[in-house]
């Protein structure tokens, strides 16, 4: 609320008074009516809070009694109604069968009695031969068949169902993707070097919607854009030697692209800064930060990991003249839930939860929005190569189903973890595999679900094609 300089008309009492502006409704109120307006807003907030509390209670009830879900109740009702229809239909046919079978049995019994009398007569007269015996046998077979298979009544299944079938429509089916194990080299792979078809210890990567790859070429102090299916890249930032001038970079570790204005943001680690490049114009966004990983969310916030202060900070895009907000770590180096130890790459999901590759704790932690502590979602069981362990993890990304993918650097593999599971699974790489990775560093997906891996010590970017 801000005070107006001159007397204006109050929205409630309609009198000329010193008024105060409400930013929410953009109306002017005198002091008395402003107090009442605040009370109305407070009452509305209380009502909203009650609604939220009631909804929380519903969630808890659903968790405790999942069988009470409204869809389960609909399925149960469908079952009851369908059974009632089936039972009624079955009863109708039973009555018809009983009526018909009674008539049939009476006819068969009459025939049977006639044959029995014939047998008695034959015995009495003691005058019979093979013809008589064959006739009696044939008649017995005939009435037996009529009894077991009534000729005038049978059951035929109707192709038109008389109950309404149901089906489930799932907007998102859990799918555990698989990738071809033999990767395709789609950038460099021509040995370590500074030519346009080479890389030198590549670090972070970014894949745009056209499958162009932006690479933080660490030891060449440059950012390279590798067009889809190109044989060589093109330098779009740095590449004129290691240095701290505005047009130079010093061991860049990560790069992201703002696809709205086509600018790139670089974690210029050696110069302790985050710098933006737009049409060859440079602007330092954040200074004096030991940056490693970058991420940007859909709300226009930039996230940066600081591997010295062991924290992740967030800035509103375009508002960098402040220290930012700590959103993960920031409690010195350690392995407690509220601490990090040399964080590297980061990922931010649709809910603004932050996934941090907590390198020297050999784990990935998830920090929900405004959380003071993280939860371990991968690793956290010491260094090792078991499926519940990581060894110096680096790149981390999360798919639409919340499955977490980690570049398990020292184990030369990429692992997939589902939150809450004690173990992960190897999706590509691992010791003894053909086309082996050598220090996988960063991960990314394209729109089709193909997996891209920075194969750092092989100085190349590998593409693992999804198996459809």
Write up what this structure looks like.
The chain is of the alpha+beta class and 468 residues long. It has 2 domains: 93-171, no CATH class; 178-467, 6 Propeller (Neuraminidase). It has helices at residues 31-64, 70-125, 130-148; strands at residues 2-9, 16-21, 28-30, 184-188, 202-207, 213-217, 222-226, 234-238, 252-258, 263-268, 273-278, 281-287, 291-296, 301-306, 311-316, 325-329, 343-348, 354-358, 363-367, 375-379, 393-398, 403-408, 413-418, 425-429, 440-445, 451-455, 460-464. Helix 2 (70-125) packs antiparallel against helix 3 (130-148).
Essential attributes:
4-stranded antiparallel sheet; glycoprotein; about 475 residues; Neuraminidase; alpha+beta; elongated; NHL_repeat; coiled coil; signal; 3 helices; 6-blade_b-propeller_TolB-like
How does the SSE layout of this entry go?
Elements: E1 2-9, E2 16-21, E3 28-30, H1 31-64, H2 70-125, H3 130-148, E4 184-188, E5 202-207, E6 213-217, E7 222-226, E8 234-238, E9 252-258, E10 263-268, E11 273-278, E12 281-287, E13 291-296, E14 301-306, E15 311-316, E16 325-329, E17 343-348, E18 354-358, E19 363-367, E20 375-379, E21 393-398, E22 403-408, E23 413-418, E24 425-429, E25 440-445, E26 451-455, E27 460-464
Antiparallel strand pairs: 1-2, 2-3, 4-27, 5-6, 6-7, 7-8, 9-10, 10-11, 11-12, 13-14, 14-15, 15-16, 17-18, 18-19, 19-20, 21-22, 22-23, 23-24, 25-26, 26-27
């Amino acid at each position: 609320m801000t005070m107006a300089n001159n007397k204006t008309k109050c929205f409630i009492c309609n009198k000329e008074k010193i008024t105060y502006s409400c930013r929410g409704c953009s109306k002017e109120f005198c002091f008395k009516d402003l107090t009442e307006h605040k009370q109305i807003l407070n009452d509305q907030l209380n009502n909203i809070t009650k609604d939220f509390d009631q909804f929380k209670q519903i969630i808890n009830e659903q968790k405790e009694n999942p069988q009470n879900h409204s869809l389960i109740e609909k399925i149960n009702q469908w079952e009851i109604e369908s059974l009632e229809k089936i039972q009624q239909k079955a009863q109708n046919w039973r009555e018809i069968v009983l009526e018909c079978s009674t008539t049939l049995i009476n006819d068969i019994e009459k025939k049977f009695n006639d044959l029995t009398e014939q047998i008695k007569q034959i015995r009495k007269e003691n005058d019979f031969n093979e013809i008589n015996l064959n006739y009696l046998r044939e008649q017995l077979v005939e009435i037996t068949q009529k009894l077991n298979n009534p000729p005038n009544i049978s059951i035929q299944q109707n192709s038109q169902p008389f109950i309404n079938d149901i089906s489930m429509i799932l907007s998102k089916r859990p799918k555990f993707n698989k990738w071809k194990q033999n990767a395709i080299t789609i950038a460099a792979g021509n040995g370590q070097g500074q030519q346009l078809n080479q890389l030198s210890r590549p670090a972070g990567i970014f894949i745009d919607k056209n499958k162009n790859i932006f690479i933080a070429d660490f030891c060449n102090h440059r950012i390279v854009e590798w067009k889809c299916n190109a044989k060589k890249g093109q330098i779009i930032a740095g590449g004129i030697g290691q240095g701290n001038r505005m047009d130079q970079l010093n061991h860049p570790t990560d790069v992201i692209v703002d696809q709205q204005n086509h600018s790139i943001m670089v974690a210029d680690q050696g110069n302790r800064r985050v710098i933006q490049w737009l049409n060859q114009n440079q602007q330092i966004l954040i200074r004096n930060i030991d940056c490693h990983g970058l991420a940007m969310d859909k709300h226009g916030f930039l996230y940066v990991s600081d591997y010295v202060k062991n924290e992740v900070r967030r800035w509103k895009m375009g508002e960098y003249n402040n220290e930012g907000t700590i959103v993960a770590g920031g409690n010195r180096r350690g392995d407690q839930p509220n601490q990090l130890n040399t964080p590297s790459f980061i990922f931010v999901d649709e809910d603004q939860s932050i996934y941090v590759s907590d390198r020297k704790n050999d784990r990935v932690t998830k920090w929900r929005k405004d959380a003071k502590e993280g939860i371990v979602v991968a690793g956290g069981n010491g260094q090792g190569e078991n499926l519940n362990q990581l060894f110096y993890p680096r790149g981390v990304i999360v798919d639409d189903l919340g499955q977490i993918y980690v570049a398990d650097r020292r184990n030369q593999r990429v692992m997939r973890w589902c939150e809450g599971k004690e173990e992960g699974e190897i999706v590509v790489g691992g010791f003894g595999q053909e086309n082996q990775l050598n220090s996988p560093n960063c991960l990314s997906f394209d729109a089709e679900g193909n997996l891209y891996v920075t194969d750092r010590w092989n100085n190349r970017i590998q593409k693992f094609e999804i198996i459809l």
